[in-house]
Amino acid sequence: MSRPLPDARLALLLSALSAALLTGCPEEKVLCTSGLDVCGAECVDLQGDPSNCGACGTACGSGETCQAGVCGCQPGTEVCGDACVALASDPLNCGACGAACPSGQVCESGSCREGCSAGAERCGDSCVVLANDPLNCGACGAVCPDVQSCHSGRCMYDVVTACYTNGQLVGIQAGTDRMGPRRQFGSGVQALAAWDGVVLVADAARSVLSQAPAGALGTVAEEDSLGAVAASPNDILVDPPYVYVLDSVNNTLQVLKREGASQGGGLGLRTVGQVNLGANTSPQAIAKRGDTFYIPLFGTAGSDFKQGNAVARVSVSDPEKPRLVDTVPLTGLDLKSFDGGTTMALPYAAVAVDAGVYVALTNLNPANDYLPNGPGMLARIDPADGGVHAIDLGAKDCLNAGDVRAVGDQLVVSCLGEAVFDTASGYRAKAVRATGLVLVKDDKPVASYALSPGCTGGPENGCDLAVGGRLAVVGNAVYVTDVNAGRVFVVEVRDGQFVERRGNSTPQAKGPALDACPVDSRRGISNAIDIVAVP
User: Fold this and answer.
1) C-alpha to C-alpha distance for 357 and 290, rounded to whole angstroms
2) What is the pLDDT of residues 138-155, one digit of tens each?
């Protein structure tokens, strides 16, 4: 999903700037976007590329990865002498450095034993599970590169972030929260999804749905047209064997079907259907419940948002012939205007759970430069009768609700906050408040987490402020993007509270937020526009 601000002018501006930078000059020289350096004829990430770690041509050793430009042991291995070993399965270092198993025994889970347990395979004198062992992924000795994990015998990243400003993708390993190298991928990456070892990337600049292997993010495996030239693909939903792409400019829901792998290793998609949701509706996201899609309609300023402030219900009982059933209006809600004046629901995201469909409401005043004029809110839609109930998330903790995801029986809402942008420097945030996360249980906010950049003084003092964006969930961990400085914060949901794992504001944090998308020095911003968990 996408959109740092409801105002589409920002997305269009960044798209034009990104395209111009990536096109470069006609001179025959390599031009790299921010965060990548020239090594020979390629753009590489010296901070994360194990083949060029810290400097061009400096390769990490076998079993090592590159983090912050320094080679080190791969996650799951430890230093024993001058080598990186897996204490869980190394028969010469079984459970501890130098603890060798007796002749004839094997090492499994850090203990010496006579043979492998059920479900484990023998690789030499080691017992491993080929389905999830990154050192023996799918076959003995098949080592996953950098910080990739083993997914059902295939090496992939666990989480992938899209950098809109730089046109890059970057993989993250869940649990360790370590990043792989940044890879260049198009010029207008806007929305992500993942399916069967492939990351789907909607490129607004070229109006295509590109596919990259989830373990080789810089490689294009397949591309499919998104039809209209001026597209804004805001969301992708995978519902095998179909993929649905939502276009907020052309107001369409496009249906693609998998019909066998392509020659490049892609999914083999073909467009099989489409439905138009109506002029000036500006659809934003897709939530599926049964055979019905719930699609927030933001509306457009040119039509005074008269076709927005609603949720479209689309039947996909026949996926190749999607049908607009009706719309659920959000205009009758008490939006708790701060001054009793103008504010609109302007829905932005949605999620379907057992209790109903929850829609994130930005609650903005379009007449006042899209500033919040009420607290961030959720609307719960009852699928049985279409009834709508509003949930106040609290103005102190949440303004401009922008995304919502389920974590167990709770909901996590991302709040973009009230950001004041310096348009002279390329929409860099110079002030922001009430941006972060809110945890909701039984339709009530129960906890909050404020995004903090870990510095003070604002951009004029070298402090890039954080502005919350999209969410991805892995287990109880929530990954939230920063659309101003390109970071990814990691927060766990525990016992009805937020516990910071990667951030800058609490003592229990294991480290700073991840610098996934480098800030472009020429514009002072970096939009980590979307994030997806890879199954």
Assistant:
1) 11
2) 999 999 989 999 999 999
